[in-house]
């Protein structure tokens, strides 16, 4: 017995010694969570990400107002053709921190309020925004700046996981306060053994343009400037001077060399009178932004100083703001999750890029796709919900094609009323094919709308179907050819003499209201008790309110019972909930007024 007991104990010891660590060690390098252990023994680089709000891509080095940025550019990598994938601050910032297009996260990009359901959905689905990811992997993380969309306190944004967040959006004359707090944070950082991630966000030169006295006198240009642009450039000069103080402090504290420093903007600024009234929203956007995806709205600076080097390099290839998240991960030696939609810039920097990057962007009422200098912009209702900016009516969705090589200011775009009209426009066949290809890329890049399916087994030669929505419009996807069809946007009437079973599929565009439908056989309406729905074939009469889940079938086609007269199911997930009645609080309104978002 003793020998047997000793043998059992030995086997138990071997099992615990060999296998116990595997049960308790955290998995690294997976698709959902980047590695948490350095691949080398050296300290990871620090990351300083600087955003200068509203800084256009044609400012640095051209007006004499950026001496510190000019000097930085001479010792860094200058990406000459860098485009943001969203055209105002909140969606653009979320692109920075998720590495995904604006429509890939639940927070809307058409209105200022973030509803409770959007915030909850963001926390549920976005497990690793960049600040949280770095924080969870031994970085100390700070945000210093003016960006009210990085907190959920005011109903304007979401918390992306900083250790410390110092937001100055509720203060007047915030620029100097931001610099002062940044220097205080650097004092804290020096004593930290961990690497740091610091997101520094200056609101200037965002409107209203109110530079301190003397800064407009630094402008050097032969260009005739109006008062607004002169004041805008004065604010650029002001921010540049403040950045000089931050740079000096980094060097004095010996933090400069081992820090990846990234300088960019969240969007540009419209200064071309030809774009004063946005063709997409009808809004006055002169000396503003967020209402279109023209180049002056999306072309911004990108300067990167890599840790341990001050090599000057200039890259003319297109890059996108969606690429910054994976670039930071790459240089910090983390694996890049497959869910990230951007591509690291490291291969481009190291001259190993094999394919050209293409552009896809979204903002209010606008979607766009681009290759090189050519763009197709679409007026779109695709992501809108009923609220301040949209009351539920779907109008025409035209397209604007432009080539910035031939039309640098995009003032003479080719207008296309709709894609079906292309064949009648007598365009060059090569151009026609290109526009059609760009259009297909827009469709492929956007998230798919839920698809509704209706299966009918007629009992007579007289079948009538009515489908109705309260807002948006119905778009039929598939149906038999021998149906009599009447489409009126919110209402579709179908009549047929078919006696064989048939199916129709449709979507609600945008997905803002649930479709109601009725079916009649020989003028006799089919009761809800005879209509079966969803994956499990439950009777529609079994639910009276909040029945979304009842209709879901996921990606699987339900097994339709042979005796079911009418079967209805939804493919593609639940509709995003959005409250059109949410009002901004006083604090939120004051913040937006100070920043020039609302007048």
From TrEMBL:
SUPFAM superfamilies: Alkaline phosphatase-like
CDD domains: sulfatase_like
Keywords: Membrane, Transmembrane, Transmembrane helix
Membrane-spanning intervals of the chain: 7-24
Start and end residues of each Sulfatase N-terminal domain: 45-331
Protein name: Sulfatase
């Amino acid at each position: 017995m003793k020998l047997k007991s000793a043998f059992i104990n030995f086997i138990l010891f071997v099992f615990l010694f060999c296998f116990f660590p595997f049960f308790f060690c955290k998995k690294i390098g997976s698709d959902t969570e980047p590695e948490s252990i350095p691949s080398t023994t050296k300290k990871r680089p620090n990351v300083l990400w600087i955003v200068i709000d509203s800084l256009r891509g044609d400012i640095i080095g051209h007006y004499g107002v950026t001496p510190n940025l000019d000097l930085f550019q001479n010792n860094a990598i200058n990406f000459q053709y860098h485009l943001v994938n969203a055209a105002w601050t909140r969606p653009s910032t979320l692109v920075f921190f998720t590495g995904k297009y604006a429509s890939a996260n639940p927070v809307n990009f058409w209105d200022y309020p973030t509803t409770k359901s959007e915030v909850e959905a963001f926390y549920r689905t976005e497990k690793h925004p960049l600040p949280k990811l770095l924080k969870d992997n031994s970085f100390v993380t700070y945000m210093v700046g003016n960006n009210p969309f990085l907190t959920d306190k005011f109903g304007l944004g979401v918390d992306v996981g900083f250790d410390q967040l110092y937001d100055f959006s509720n203060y007047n004359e915030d620029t100097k306060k931001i610099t002062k707090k940044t220097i205080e944070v650097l004092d804290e950082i020096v004593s930290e053994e961990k690497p740091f991630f610091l997101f520094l966000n200056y609101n200037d030169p965002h409107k209203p343009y109110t530079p301190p006295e003397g800064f407009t006198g630094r402008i050097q240009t032969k260009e005739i400037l109006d008062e607004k642009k002169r004041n805008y450039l004065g604010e650029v000069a002001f921010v540049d001077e403040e950045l000089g103080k931050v740079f000096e402090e980094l060097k004095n504290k010996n933090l400069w060399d081992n820090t990846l420093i990234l300088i960019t903007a969240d969007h540009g600024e419209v200064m071309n009178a030809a774009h004063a009234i946005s063709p997409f929203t009808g809004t006055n956007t002169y000396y503003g932004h967020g209402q279109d995806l023209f180049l002056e709205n999306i072309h911004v600076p990108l300067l990167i100083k890599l840790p341990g080097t001050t090599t000057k390099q200039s890259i003319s290839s297109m890059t996108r703001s969606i690429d910054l998240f994976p670039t930071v991960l790459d240089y910090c030696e983390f694996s890049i999750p497959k869910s990230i939609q951007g591509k690291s810039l490291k291969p481009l920097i190291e001259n190993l890029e094999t394919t050209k990057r293409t552009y896809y962007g979204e903002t209010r009422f606008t979607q766009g796709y681009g290759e090189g200098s050519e763009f197709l912009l679409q007026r779109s209702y695709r992501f809108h919900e009923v609220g301040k900016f949209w009351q539920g009516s779907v109008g025409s969705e035209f397209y604007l094609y432009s080539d910035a090589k031939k039309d640098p200011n995009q003032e003479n775009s080719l207008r296309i009323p709709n894609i079906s009209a292309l064949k009648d426009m007598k365009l060059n066949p090569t151009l026609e094919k290109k526009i059609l290809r760009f259009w297909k890329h827009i469709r492929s890049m956007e998230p798919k709308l839920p698809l509704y399916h209706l299966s009918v087994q007629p009992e007579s030669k007289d079948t009538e179907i009515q489908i109705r929505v309260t807002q948006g419009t119905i778009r039929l996807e598939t149906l038999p050819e021998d149906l009599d069809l009447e489409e009126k946007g919110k209402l579709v009437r179908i009549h047929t003499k078919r006696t064989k079973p048939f199916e129709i599929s449709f979507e609600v565009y945008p997905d803002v209201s649930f479709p109601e439908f009725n079916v009649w056989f020989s003028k006799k309406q089919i009761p809800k008790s005879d209509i079966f729905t969803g994956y499990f074939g439950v009777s529609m009469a079994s639910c009276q309110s909040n029945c979304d889940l009842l209709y879901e079938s996921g990606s699987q086609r339900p097994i339709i019972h042979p005796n079911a007269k009418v079967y209805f199911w939804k493919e593609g997930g639940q509709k995003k909930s959005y409250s059109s009645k949410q009002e901004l609080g006083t604090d939120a309104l004051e913040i937006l007024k100070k920043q020039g978002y609302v007048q």
